[in-house]
Amino acid sequence: MAGLGQVDLLLSSLTIFRQVADDLQDAEKDSDLGKFFGHINAYGVILIDCLSPLGHGRSRPSDLDSLFHLLLKKLTTFFRHSVLPEYESELPSSNPFRRLATLVYYWSAAADNGKKLAWTQQCLDFSCHERRAEMVLILRGCVATLQTLQCDEPVAVERRARLKKGKKPLSVYTCANTVFEALFASSTACSAVHNHDCAARLRLSTHQKQVDDQREFEVFLTLNLTCHIWQETRIQAMISDLQSAKKATVKFAVRETNSEKSQHRRRRRLAVVRLCDQFEKLKSKPMMRLNLAVEDGKLWKDQSSRIERPISQSDPQISLADIIKERPASMTEKVKRVLSVLLAYSVLHLHATPWLRPSSFNADNILFFGTSATIPLKPYIHSALSEKYMQAPSSETDELDPDDLPSHPYLDLVMLAILLMELYLIQSVHSLAEQVGMEFEDWEAVDDNTRYSIAIAVYERFKADFPDNYRQAVDRCLDPDIGFDETDEELSSDDLKMLIYDEIVQPLEDELDQGFGNTIQIDKLDEVAQTMDLSRWGQMRQPIPNSIKSAELSTPVQSESIPQDSLAISRTSTFWSSSERLTSNIDTCPRHQDYTVGWICALPEELAAAQALLDDLHSPLPQDPSDLNNYTLGRMGAHNVVMACLPSGVMGTVSAARVANNMRSTFRWLRFGLMVGIGGGVPGEKDIRLGDVVVGEPNGPYGGVIQYDFGKTIKNGEVLRTGSLNRPPDVLLTAMSRLKADHYRNGADLTRHLSGMFDRYPHLSSKFSHPGSEHDVLYKSDYDHGAKPGSSCQSCDSTNLIDRKPRSSHSPYIHYGLIASGNQVMRDGRTREKLRNDLNVLCFEMEAAGIVDVFPCLVIRGICDYSDSHKTKLWQGYAATTAAAYAKELLSVISGSQIDNAERLGSFQP
């Protein structure tokens, strides 16, 4: 292996780098890094094809050697360290590519492919943007040079196999149009009697799971747009060609008792003239779904059925435009790909129907209904039923201005292209238009040809950013000749739908399959999509056990809230293995602005406990040049959290303030902070024990934290404390109130977080578990530790112990009150008691006073000693863990919307 030739070494190295890139590409959340891995993969294939003949004795131009040397040198710069140091040390020092040679040797010698790939990824570092850019330029230059030398045989980039094409889904155009006509007729009949403002919202679906002669539609209907009351409705329509042959009653997928199944009773139907009549009947049955059927163009009512997961009528619906603007973190790579496929199917199935009016097929009218606990990825398109959309009649008269003719024959395809670009770029069409110099005020007032011009301009500006399949779909949507054949004849309706499927839907399905084919089956996309929760970045909800499903029938309102706590541990993923290999959740793609919670610790033990309670660990992000902090980024429940620790050995309020300011310089979108760690307890009126948690709560003139060593000295040496420190933001104080109420009702149990942490990291139990109640002893405040500070109390006089009633369990208590903060360690029982009497404090610590004024936060301390001379470090690990567990429990009762509103609720401005 030591004598490996330059071309052979390059071939072998490219093969390995390509396999590593292929493994990392789908899991990478950073879009730029993902594109880099894509370049490595694609260019690697081309170079391997071009270099293979050169590595077997074929002559080559001499100037290629310098190019190969440059490429090998650049590959070497991506190593953090050698994959096999002992082997590398045996190679000649004159070999400039010892690490690459060692990698090739290790790759051929290691048997376990999984471990081999994991270890190689740890040894490589792709974080430097400049290094990646240089690598792509060199690869591109090598490809161009080699391809000019190999004109006899063109080289093709390797592409993943397209999905197997089975029977293409039939368009539901006819049925969808019939359903709209029936709803429109009923709405018109309503309006003739009542002044109703009827509207319908149709679920966008692939319609792949349909009975051959029927089509099923999920719809929400309303009589009044201003009251936000929507009736869940399911409508089944017979395919027109089969209606005369099949007049059987439409059957719905409702739960039937055994007696119903045995009797096979024919359900009786009722002709529906006015929708409002049926709405009135269901007012007293709020959990019932209205089931309708359309046959022969008429609307019929079938027996209503129970709603399994009712929507939240008290909350307004969320539009795609709202998500793009206000919740961009929800638009993860998985969500974008799934939603793009569903939007493409909407054109396939609803093309040229009133459902896809040019004025309504946009991001403002693609809506999502929330349940009591989630926002399922079930898009609906809003359509008013007050007036019917009619296509403008064509005219052949000489008076027609050619500029009034449409630039594109199908406006719904243009709108689909705009939606796909908004979705992928996570920017509104207003923002995209501004970037190409085509600003507008009112999108609805823009004429169709101007919309098409905007779409073309945006596509030309950003098309290089789209993946190949995505770019193909958008390009075909915007092709003005898409509806015509080679002879310039207009395609038939069926041929056009086949073309839309082949060249728009199918590429988007391929894109989804390439990224997430291991977790999403295209033919089950409708079912999978509704398990994805937009309020949790598109993560999939766990299947609900049968016992819970049956309970839903009697208590449907609680159906969505049941699994949240019980499945919390199963939703978490281990964020490093025993070898500390970083993994990332492919569902999320957090950026600086997606981190809303800042978490500061003073000691490594405190940071370790916080890290162990994270549900996911995220990849590092670039920092402000002046920011010297070292961050841990991750997710805890519904929140993205930034964690930082004070410099080793540098404690106190000044150091804490510096860390907080640095954090804000890099993560400017933080809404509030948490100061979490250990502190010295002040036993007294409240029975504070080691391992308990003290939370800084405002009391009187104090905001939760008192800087006890700051003020002015007055007569008799007394210190008059001047000024006051900020209280925590309201979003945290209201969460504290909610958590208190929950703990009053159900009891406070932080041990469940601890047990989950030790299940994942059993090696932490030796330092971070409960040391035992026998080690929790409290001496009288005037009795000093006689031995060396920090040593055990074996030689201390046990007669000076304070007798306390043993607790029934190790579960820590939570105390709320004032926390004393200063720049010195409190280790004197007499001073502790004096300050307790003067200030009524529960805890002492050394950092909070430097943070709360510059970083609005809540201070949470686990009690590790009693602030006297008997203090040791025995309880520090456990105290740090209980404090972090309380912080995690607090975040669990703070919703994303509360964080979004935190600026108005009193937190700092970034």
From TrEMBL:
Family matches, as SUPFAM superfamilies: Purine and uridine phosphorylases
Protein source organism: Aspergillus mulundensis
UniProt protein name: DUF7580 domain-containing protein
Domain DUF7580: 171-514
Domain of life: Eukaryota
Gene Ontology biological process terms in this record: nucleoside metabolic process
Molecular function in Gene Ontology: catalytic activity
